Amino acid sequence: MKFKLDIKGADTAIRQLEGLKKEADLMTVRALNKGLSKAATLSNREIRGQVNLKLNYVKERMTLIKANPDRLAAEIKTPRRGTLMTRYPHRVLKRGVKVRVKKGAAKLIRGGFVTTLKAGNRRVEAIAVAQPKQGGRWPRYKTGNRKINVRYAPSISQVYQNVKGNVGEQVDPYISDQMQKEINRYLRQSRGRR
Questions:
Q1: Which tens digits make up the pLDDT trace of 46-82?
Q2: Smallest Cα–Cα separation from 29: which of 65, 58, 57, 53?
Q3: What is the distance between the alpha carbons of residues 31 and 104, in angstroms, rounded to a whole number?
Q4: Residue of 159, 13, 2 whose CA lies nearest to 80
Q5: Given strand 148-150, what is the order of strands in its sheet?
Q6: E strands within the chain?
Q7: Coil, strand or helix at 181
């Protein structure tokens, strides 16, 4: 995420900040990390505005990488792996499974069913569809099970890509304001030390 810095009285501030790289870096880090926190909150809200996921599910999958004096950048990372459709509100019907992925819309997955799959050391529920007959026979695994296709919804990363621009537009002015506050705070403290 990029931001522009537009400061009133910048000439005076720059003169006073010359030679104070360490303090300037710390001010930038604080402003960026406050902006990161705001961006995470807004991103979570925007993602949940597009798809029917719970707040904690989205929050747990957003990794915040904070800025530090050695790395003056902050970012949000999200998993690229698709989200199981059972994470969304769903209902099993006779003709399949009805899932509400997007807000205000439901989709019927014909022939779908809810099953339990192994995921490492635990089991998770998933919505699946049996593959259609090929040449009059159902394809089978060596174990005798029919092949199934597990259904996934868009990943959090895909939805985040859709909302990232809107969030960036809202966070840029906030980071600029935070940077201005950090500079003003430093200038007040430096006047008090005289």
A1: 999 999 999 999 999 999 999 998 888 899 999 888 8
A2: 65
A3: 37
A4: 159
A5: 112-119, 122-130, 148-150
A6: 63-65, 75-77, 83-84, 90-93, 96-99, 107-110, 112-119, 122-130, 148-150, 152-153
A7: helix
Token couple for 58? 């989205």
| Residue 192, both tokens | 């008090």
Reported for 180-185, long-range contacts at CB under 8 A and 24+ positions apart, including other chains, are 180/7, 180/8, 181/31, 182/27, 182/28, 182/30, 182/31, 183/7, 183/13, 183/17, 183/27
What's the DSSP call for residue 145? P
Q: What is the pTM of this model?
A: 0.76
Compute and round to an integer the Cα radius of gyration of the chain.
Answer: 25
- Which token pair is 92? 């099993």
Chain segment 108-167, per-residue pLDDT in tens: 988 888 988 888 898 988 888 876 666 656 555 555 556 778 889 999 999 999 998 899
